[in-house]
Each structure stands twice: as structure tokens, then as C-alpha cells.
Design brief:
Elements (H helix, E strand, L loop, with lengths): L1 H20 L2 H10 L18 H15 L14 H31 L6 H14 L1 H17 L7 H7 L1 H17 L5 H13 L2 E2 L4 E2 L4 E2 L6 E2 L4 E2 L4 E2 L4 E3 L7 H4 L8 E2 L4 E2 L4 E3 L4 E2 L4 E2 L4 E2 L8 E2 L5 E5 L6 E5 L3
Parallel strand pairs: 1-4, 2-5, 3-6, 4-7, 5-8, 6-9, 7-10, 8-11, 9-12, 10-13, 12-14
Antiparallel strand pairs: 15-16
Length: 328
């Protein structure tokens, strides 16, 4: 009897599923008709846009070259260093040139640009990026040292390289910034958004950032496209270096304008601080405290802090309220 009931239920559920599937052709036709709706976006008949897996492969290969031995699948020593790095750099060049050619061709065909000789340009740009690696390694070494020197919790430079999300985001940014400055479309932003998805740190590849840049903890950090950040700057979590509120039609009007702040050398910005506006400059050696909101410039050697908040304590037994000035 029980088997009969179960079988009846299964048949009924299967028939119900079949009834729903019969409605799919109509739904498909409706969706296909919406392809002609000019209010919506479609990417049909053009070069496919990148997938994050190929970008991830490229970033992983970059890290193997930039920090030899740290992210390799095998031990690297004097016996195989030349072979290992030579092979890795060759592989990176092939991946990178393919990606660059892809985005150049995509934009050329989709937007009707004048021919940029995509393949030749892509190979040339990829070689320039490869040639920039020695200087890039020096810059990243300074970032590592800056993170280690300013963080008592860091036990070694190796720990910073292996585990700090701030360094990962900065590494991807510095690669993407080179590509951005070489006028490679799409790819730099795809790379930094990949790092953003993994770390919660959003650095636009167009930002100008100096040496020994440190992001401590990192989650929620935003650095906008036209930001200028000097040397030896340290940011903590949830810091925003952003633009002021913009009108709905600001895209075209302000696309090339400086919309984000300038942070000069040796500045420390603590967690939760928000600094906005293209005319806003934080002077050298200044300190911006937690949760500060700034839309105007600060001269060098200035400390900006929130006024100490008034806290209310409720005792669990008698629920008495007590105002207490808390010195942050």
C-alpha cells in the first residue's frame, strides 16, 4: 500500500514538472522578442567578453613571476631557476598577449573603431608589460616592507606576501595600472574587480599610487579612478577615497575630470574615514582619524579626529543610564 502511494505521488510530481516545461517554449519566444528592445543591452554577434577564469590564470602567473618560489607548484633553486622562470615568463607573455588582442579586437569590432592592428598592438603591449616586471618587483618589494614595518602582527615578509589581502589587491592594481596607462581597454578593470571580489578592496586601475602603499585589513576600501596617492601612505579598513555625489548625467560631463582626492606622502587614514572630491587634498604627514568625513583640504602635519562620543551604559540589574565621555 505504501509503495502504491509513493509511486502515485512520484508520477503526479513528474507530470506536474512536464506541464511546467511545456510552458518553456512560450517563455523562450518572449525572451527572444525582448532582444529587439532597444531599452535593454545585448552582446550578440560580437567578440565574446572575457571570463574571470582566464583573468585569474593570468594573475596567478604574474604572481609566480613577481614573487618567484612563493606561488610556484614546485621548488625553485639554482638548478632550475633559469628554466622555470624562462618557461613561466614565456607562458605569461602568451596569456597576456592573447588577452590584450582579445579586448582590442572586441572594442574595435563592437564600437566601429579605426583598425588598431590588434594582433601587432597586443603583442607589442604584452612585451612592454613583461619588460616592466623588474621595476614592478621593486615597487611591490617596497609595499611588502611597508606592510611589515608598520604592522606588529606581521611576523615576516613571507607572511605578508602569502596572506595579506591588501598586498594581493595592490599587486593586481600595479599590474592593471601598467595596462591602463598603455590604453588597454576593459582588461585592467576586469583584473581589479577580480581582486575586489576576493578581498573587498576596490582600487581603480587608473588611480596614481606611490611607493610603500599599505592597506591594513582592507575590507571595504575604495580608491577611485582619479585619486592621487603619494608615497608611504597607509589605509585601514572601510576607507573611501571617492567622488562627491554626482548628478545623473555626470557620466559624459565628468568622465575625464579629476573627481577624487589627492593624498600626499606619509599620510595615515584610519578605519571608516571618507574623503571625497577632486579638489580635496590631505597634506603630507597628516593623520585622519576613524569615521571622519572630509570634503575639504587639510594642510600638512594635521590631525583630524571625530569629537569624543557620549556613550550610554545600561546596567543589567537596575537599568540605570550613565552618560560617559569616552576618549577614543
Amino acid at each position: 500500500m505504501d509503495d502504491f502511494i509513493i509511486n502515485s505521488v512520484c508520477r503526479t510530481e513528474r507530470n506536474n514538472a512536464s506541464d511546467y516545461r511545456k510552458e518553456l517554449p512560450h517563455a523562450i519566444n518572449t525572451i527572444l522578442k525582448s532582444m529587439d528592445d532597444e531599452r535593454c543591452f545585448a552582446h550578440i554577434g560580437d567578440e565574446p567578453i572575457h571570463f574571470s577564469t582566464s583573468v585569474k590564470e593570468m594573475i596567478d602567473k604574474f604572481r609566480e613571476i613577481l614573487f618567484p618560489g612563493y606561488f610556484s607548484g614546485e621548488k625553485i633553486d639554482g638548478a632550475n631557476l633559469v628554466y622555470n622562470l624562462g618557461q613561466g615568463i614565456s607562458q605569461l607573455y602568451d596569456i597576456l598577449s592573447e588577452q590584450i588582442i582579445h579586448v582590442l579586437r572586441h572594442d574595435c569590432l563592437r564600437y566601429g573603431h579605426a583598425c588598431s592592428e590588434c594582433e601587432g598592438s597586443g603583442n607589442k603591449i604584452a612585451l612592454k608589460v613583461i619588460q616592466a616586471i623588474p621595476n614592478l618587483r621593486v615597487s611591490l618589494a617596497e609595499d611588502v616592507k611597508g606592510a611589515y614595518d608598520g604592522d606588529p602582527a606581521a611576523k615576516s615578509h613571507d607572511e605578508v606576501i602569502f596572506s595579506y589581502p591588501g598586498l594581493f589587491a595592490i599587486t593586481v592594481y600595479r599590474i592593471a595600472n601598467i595596462l591602463f596607462n598603455l590604453n588597454v581597454p576593459q582588461l585592467p578593470r576586469i583584473m581589479t574587480e577580480h581582486a575586489h571580489s576576493l578581498t573587498g578592496i576596490d582600487i581603480h586601475p587608473g588611480a596614481k599610487i606611490g611607493e610603500r602603499f599599505v592597506i591594513d585589513h582592507g575590507t571595504g576600501v575604495v580608491v577611485g579612478e582619479t585619486s592621487v596617492v603619494g608615497n608611504n601612505v597607509r589605509l585601514y579598513q572601510n576607507v573611501t577615497i571617492g567622488a562627491l555625489s554626482l548628478p545623473p548625467d555626470a557620466g559624459e560631463k565628468l568622465r575625464e575630470a579629476k573627481r577624487h582626492p589627492t593624498i600626499e606622502d606619509d599620510v595615515i587614514i584610519y578605519s571608516g574615514a571618507t574623503i571625497l572630491g577632486g579638489e580635496t587634498t590631505i597634506g603630507a604627514r597628516s593623520i585622519v582619524g576613524g569615521n571622519v568625513w572630509l570634503t575639504h583640504s587639510v594642510p600638512p602635519d594635521t590631525k583630524v579626529f571625530m569629537e569624543s562620543p557620549s556613550l550610554i551604559y545600561k546596567h543589567q540589574e537596575n537599568q540605570k543610564e550613565l552618560n560617559h565621555e569616552y576618549q577614543t
